[in-house]
Amino acid sequence: MDEKLRAPPINPLLLRIRTSIASLRLTPYVNYNLIPTISTQSNFRHRPSSIDPFEETPAITGHSSQFPSPPRPPPLFSTFTDNYPKQLAVLIVPSSNTSINTYSKMIVETWGIVAKNDKALSVDLWFASSEDTLRKFGWPNVPGFEDESKSKGKSKDGSTEIDNKSDDSKISKKTQEKDNLKEMMKELVEQTMIFDEPAELSQNQKSFKTIAKALHFLYAYHLDHYNYVLKITDKTFVRLPYLLELLSKTKRKPRLIGRPDIDYENNVKFCWDGPGYILSKDLLAIIGPHLPFCLEDKSITEDMALERCLYKNAPSFMGCEDFTNGTGHEFLYLRSDDDMNWANVVHPERQFSDGYLEGWTFANSVIVGGVTSIETLKDLQSWYGTGGKYEKIIERRMMLLRKKLVRGTTNNLRRSKRNK
Question: Between 186 and 315, where is the model more confident?
């Protein structure tokens, strides 16, 4: 990283205090620069004296039996009440500004509808978008991604527009004064911040900041409500029942699950972001308070930035792992121009190479990233979704196998009678 953009040296004691406070805070921040909101909830001096905000708790964010964690607020969203913790939160990051109305919409209409209809799966979908997806799709969006340039009452030069009408002039003037005061306070806080970030972010940094911000929200408000968080883009197909079956057989500990690749700088495996990755609740509890401070070098991709953040701040992090009882082929990602291998969607068990390893099949895949079109999403759902063509092929095979076994047993009985 350029020396000019590097953050100043961090006092270890100050970091310990700030991270401990972040772990106990009941309310999140307005934006990701740690500008606090004016909250109506009680602050630290009104909390029970048994909770010490400066105590170095286990793994910074855990709490001992002597000092239990303070109660967290109720969930902001629930598809059905009184059934927490749920098994999985699916964090969907739109691949573009317009894909919310194409790929995201198709997800809701294909494999996402399985989560909506089958409450026993215990899955919620979350969108990292400024769109009101709760009203649009019935699934919530992570707050905090609103475009400030489009905020109401702002002109192109950043000043507040004053209505020419005499009736509204006083109200507009008061609004302008409040906005100016907010801007002054914001600048004051930013100037006194110890954790600074570059004025201009690269595309990789923006991508990681989006993911970190969304994960920090789930940590702040929903840590106790989900056992796992799956992060994907909206160009991804997920076989939800199969995925939940694998997660149910996985021991939940501080764990990052995905398609491993090696980070040669620290010799630790990171989970490739192409097909997505899964964080356990235990790992999110450890890394949650550190996410605002983990902005990496401009050249580091999102997946490596997350891995390095975990490596630095989570002592129990062992790198990216496969599913405990999986085949190692659950996370599939194909290039958009790989027409030859995408054609294997209709050939479930045909083995092919995706450019890295041999022996991949759509039948073994649980999560398929890099989907080329909404039509491909439809095809994947029709073949590998609940009640899809591949399930019918398997059912037919099982029926033929049972008939064969019955026929063999009948023939053996006839032969034994003849021998008698």
Answer: 315
